[in-house]
Amino acid sequence: xxxxxxxxxxxxxxxxxxxLSCVASGTIFxxxxxxxxxxxxxxxxxLVARIDRGGSSNYAHFVKGRFTVSRDNAKDTVFLxxxxxxxxxxxxxxxxMIEPNGRWGDIEYWGDGTLVTxxx
Length: 120
Prior knowledge:
By secondary structure, the protein is mainly β. It is 0% helix and 53% strand.
């Protein structure tokens, strides 16, 4: 059973930066696509960024140019570098892993999340 553990959240002032990490275990990491989501209080969870097994990345419009997703397959880790943070970026950030499982379809795993609070 694969597991994901996020870290790096915390309190930061508007305009500041944070780097989130998500370490995977129990999987062949470089086969998997990885995604970062966030959920603000009272709102639905939303996709922030994605990086596929080949290293191609995509971003939600509201973080494009400010956030960068990357991965280190040697360390089974995906990162989310967040810069120019805004109070509206305050949320719990979750890591999601999509593991291919042949003809049975993909298996999805979620971490427990890490809280990012941006003060104005």
